[in-house]
Amino acid sequence: MRISVIGCGYLGAVHAACMAELGHDVVGLDVDEDKIAKLAAGVAPFHEPGFDAVLKRGVESGRLGFTTDPAAIADAEIHFIAVGTPQLSGRLGADMSYVAQAVRTIIEHAEPGTERPVLVAGKSTVPVGTAQLISDEFDGSGKNLVLAWNPEFLREGYAVKDTLHPDRIVYGLPDDVAKGEAAREVLNQCYATMLEAETPLVVANYPTAELVKVAANSFLATKISFINAMADLCDATGGDVTRLAEAIGYDDRIGPKFLQAGIGFGGGCLPKDIRAFMARAGELGVDEALTFLREVDTINLRRRDHAVRLAEEVVGGSLSGKKIAVLGITFKPDTDDLRDSPALDIASKLWAAGADLAIVDPAAGDKLRERRPDLRVPETLEEAVTDADAVMILTQWRDFVDLDPTSIRDLVAAPNIIDGRNVLDPKRWSDAGWNYYGMGRGVSI
Ligand code: UGA
């Protein structure tokens, strides 16, 4: 099939490359010339395991192209909207201007459907109610465009795998039966390989499909804040939240995933999605339904202050002039994404409190140097930990999880290790002569 993908950020670029991998002819459109030049040359503009290979394969096969020219989308049979919906500055709601621009581009440049309607599939995370508004706009355009809402659930770090082998596919279809059937047929053709592999398919109306996405992210955020609240209880009582999570996770109804306590969630999705969801609930007059998400957000942000306070106590009460080595600055491992990174927020707070910081990260070092020239970002972990009064693991990159405690023991000024992600073995580190501090592991000071 001929496919266009509008918006070539994380979501769009990966989606475009994966659609080409499935055998479709794909053009990705974005206004960012640098990004498009890189993608068109088969070079990934961000760190994502496995993406380079599918991108290169797609570009070399001639099935995958990228452009800034909107006219190039004209003959696509499906247009995917994959632009960002970031948090509005100073407000809880989502910035919908990129979606509005994508809709205008499609109306202006898509060839009208003649034999069958041209499908537009929305992938961006939007406030519930958006799809109907876009659909109405298409109806008034005279171009025979039909909209489906087809949310995406990929995780950074697993984006290619999640796109090619999703847990489920969701179609949000128009109420009009004929249009709905037409949309379903085109989507079935697009996702034929995945459907043949018996990927569960959920077909619903627009609002349900829009809600599925934010409900899923809200549930994940709630799970994380729940376990972080339990971490506070463990700290107060001498419990160990990692054992607690393991024990409750054996219950199938709860499950073991997303119960890792630590410095909390960040990234370009969970934090802004729960805030936009609350804002939308307010507009719909059902804000009470989601007041619990405010607490989820508050618990999450409190983790960052907790980590700063812990560091302060570990180094003797004041951070001023204390050398702190921060290991990991991205919002999670296997990405170079710094958006709403708890690690970066904590580092900024430590720096503001006068700490002498040294930060290392396997993927985001250069980006951090560019963005925050005020922060010290040495090339090696050894340099970063030398003479440190405390070492803090804030992102659980494999290199840090596997770190041999004896290998850096003699480099530091004081053997204090703060495990912001609860990924180290406390006994192993204690046996090697370190003072170990986790997040809710019953070793309060
Ligand atoms: C999230 C969802 O997991 C995806 O399903 C969704 O498609 C995506 O948002 C999106 O809306 O586009 P992502 O932001 O890549 O994906 O990251 P997650 O793996 O969900 O992690 C989010 C944050 O939670 C990270 O900072 C991570 O360190 C933290 N986390 C995760 C915890 O603190 N504890 C856990 O147990 C799990």
From TrEMBL:
Q: Which reaction does it catalyse?
A: UDP-alpha-D-glucose + 2 NAD(+) + H2O = UDP-alpha-D-glucuronate + 2 NADH + 3 H(+)
Q: Cite a single GO BP annotation.
A: UDP-glucuronate biosynthetic process
Protein name per Swiss-Prot or TrEMBL: UDP-glucose 6-dehydrogenase
Residues spanning the membrane = none
Cited Pfam families: UDPG_MGDP_dh, UDPG_MGDP_dh_C, UDPG_MGDP_dh_N
Associated pathway: Nucleotide-sugar biosynthesis; UDP-alpha-D-glucuronate biosynthesis; UDP-alpha-D-glucuronate from UDP-alpha-D-glucose: step 1/1
Q: Which organism is it from?
A: Tessaracoccus flavescens
Q: Domain named UDP-glucose/GDP-mannose dehydrogenase C-terminal: which ranges? A: 325-426
The Swiss-Prot or TrEMBL record describes its family as follows: Belongs to the UDP-glucose/GDP-mannose dehydrogenase family.
